[in-house]
Design a protein that fits this description.
The chain is of the alpha/beta class. It has a domain of 239 residues: Ribonuclease Inhibitor (Leucine-rich repeat, LRR (right-handed beta-alpha superhelix), Alpha-Beta Horseshoe), CATH 3.80.10.10. 16% of the residues lie in helices and 15% in strands. It has 7 helices and 15 strands. A 10-stranded parallel sheet has the order 1-2-3-4-5-6-7-8-9-10. The protein has a 3-stranded antiparallel sheet with strand order 11-14-15. A hairpin with an 8-residue loop joins β12 and β13. The radius of gyration is 27 Å and the shape is elongated. The protein starts with a helix and ends with a helix. Keywords: Leucine-rich repeat, Repeat. This is Leucine-rich repeat-containing protein 58. One of its GO terms (cellular component) is cytoplasm. Pfam families: LRR_1, LRR_8.
Length: 359
């Protein structure tokens, strides 16, 4: 090996050699134990070990204390060894396409306090491990093509996160706490099983790209129109695009709800002397119908109705609204952006839907 290469490029490249862990360790040990050991240790900042036959990380890797970039992708790793946490200068770790699972990370993984990019795509994680949530400087977290079925609420700890890639997993929902990731610019949730999104997604004011294609979405939260900076919205292969929903879903109200509606609409006074506490609490849960021509309220029984609205003046998207009865389906109000239009829902030209259809 040519030490001048390391002096000039600050990197060691042993990628695509199909080497076993023993052969890689031998190469690195031989290099590290040269008479220029200090020179190598001080200058090597990038180590490329992808596409080999490693089943674990060589111990000698931890000796390169100035290492900032480590790529161990496409090996046969089942765990990340404890020695890795001693690489205090590491900013990028790429370990995609291995055999890592929820127990693969060391307990002290959070000691990599300078880590900014972590790529664990193509493994067997079912959740975002607690150790990952301790990496408070993380800007990019890529865990696509795993088996993730749960995103913990503590995801909000990653306040510096700019890119979150969770495509190709088994997610059926995402937590409302994701709305606290104020620096997030790209959120990739494609190829999951999402049926809805939390309204808190509207808090992601820095969001530029939102990939939702190949899910089970039938509508989007109305609050999504508040994402004024969103430049890329991918929705293809969702029911809301493949089959526009215009049917109303309505369960008739119970006698309890009908009585409660009458009390609220007629402004009938009541207090603890007239009603038990549970009924008073129930009356306090009333929601007003979104139709401005209707003064009604609802509690549990509501009409789920889909309304197409303009999004940033670019294209129409279907949003879900709740009405108090089927009679209120005509011209219900949405309090959206200035670009809301008054076109009839039934006359949506293909040109207006094209961007949504293509994603």
């Amino acid at each position: 090996m040519d030490l001048q290469l390391f002096k000039s490029t600050n990197s060691i490249d042993l990628s695509y050699l199909q080497l076993s862990v023993n052969l890689i360790e031998e190469q690195l040990v031989n290099l590290h134990q040269t008479e220029n050991e200090q020179l190598v240790a001080e200058h090597v900042q990038a180590l490329y070990l992808q596409h080999n036959l490693m089943i674990y990380l060589p111990l000698v890797v931890s000796h390169f204390q100035q290492l900032k970039f480590l790529d161990v992708s496409s090996n046969q790793l089942t765990e990340i060894s404890d020695q890795l946490v001693h690489l205090s200068q590491l900013t990028t770790l790429i370990a995609k396409n291995n055999m890592l699972n929820d127990n693969a990370l060391p307990k002290d993984f959070g000691m990599l306090e300078n880590l900014e990019e972590l790529n664990l795509s193509g493994n067997s994680f079912t959740t975002i491990s607690p150790q990952i949530l301790e990496l408070t400087k993380l800007k990019g977290l890529l865990m696509g093509a795993n088996q993730i079925n749960h995103v913990p609420a503590d995801i909000m700890k990653l306040q510096k996160l700019q890119v979150l890639y969770l495509g190709g997993n088994n997610l059926t929902e995402i937590p409302a706490e994701m709305g606290h990731l104020g620096d997030l610019q790209a959120l990739i949730l494609c190829q999951n099983q999402l049926q809805s999104l939390p309204s808190t997604i509207s808090h992601l004011h820095q969001l530029r790209s939102l990939a939702l294609h190949k899910n089970r979405l039938t509508t989007l939260p109305p609050e999504i129109v508040q994402l004024k900076g969103l430049a890329e919205l991918s929705l293809r292969d969702n029911p809301l695009v493949v089959r526009f929903i215009r049917d109303m879903i309505y369960v008739p109200p119970t006698l309890l709800e009908l009585s409660a509606r009458t009390i609220k609409i007629k402004n009938i006074p009541y207090g603890q002397d007239e009603l038990p506490k549970n009924l008073i609490s129930y009356l306090q849960t009333a929601h007003h119908c979104l139709n401005p021509k209707c003064k009604g309220v609802y509690f549990d029984a509501r009409v789920e109705h889909v309304k197409f609205v303009d999004f940033c003046g670019k294209y129409k998207i279907p949003l879900l609204q709740y009405l108090c009865s089927p009679r209120c389906k005509t011209q219900p109000a949405f309090y959206m952006s200035d670009s809301d239009c008054s076109e009839d829902d039934e006359e949506i030209p293909f040109s207006r839907l094209k961007k949504v259809l293509l994603g």
